[in-house]
Task: structure prediction
Amino acid sequence: MATLEITGLNKSFAVGKERREVLRNIDLTLADNEFVSIVGTSGCGKSTLLSIAAGLEEFDSGSVRVDGVPITGPGLDRGVVFQSYTLLPWLTARQNVEFALKAAGLSRAQCREIADEHLELVKLTKFAEAYPNELSGGMKQRVAIARALSYRPKILLMDEPFGALDAMTRHQMQELLTRIWETHRLTVMFVTHDVEEAVYLSDRIVVMGLGPGRIKTTFDVKLGRPRHEDMAASAEFIELQRQVLRSIREEEQGVAAL
Result:
């Protein structure tokens, strides 16, 4: 059974006395352990789609199901990581991870054990007692990832998680995420504007179009795993990146012509 299934999804926002349609008839299925990136020109509804899957936004019609069960709001079956780090500044790295676990009803000892395990997973054991203002951007995002993974969600939803990082840190975070995913094998929906990042990380790339947001096309990424940085120089990688960019630019040119 598919882990995440979105069927006939439609979404609009109120704009004055009218409604603006932002997503139309979205059909998208993410299989168990599949890594799917969502790309597309600005305003195509990528982040809105992810927020709906997270249970953070309502929608007009259609269905969103996890293992066949309709979602009714946020849940522990889905972990969410945003571009902004969303850490509580008055809590240490460990306490930020424990905060999510306490909300799940775990004991104090369980919270400590699981938090430490996941800080080790993201290579932050030495910074467990550090506060967010003592951490770099990449470290903050690692804490956010540790927190999202700590309660063992079936699905990880990530909205431009590395968009605010410098190029070197971004690459390190891509390597970390790839290693975590290949080890723990969970389903990932990953929104990004970086096509190279999408090709490097994904099993499948979904290109969204505008007017209103819709799924234009999908690309299977047939690169082997485990992934490594040398792949970015391969002819297969470069050709797929070119095809995805062309698909996005067709949408941008279409909007410019309106």
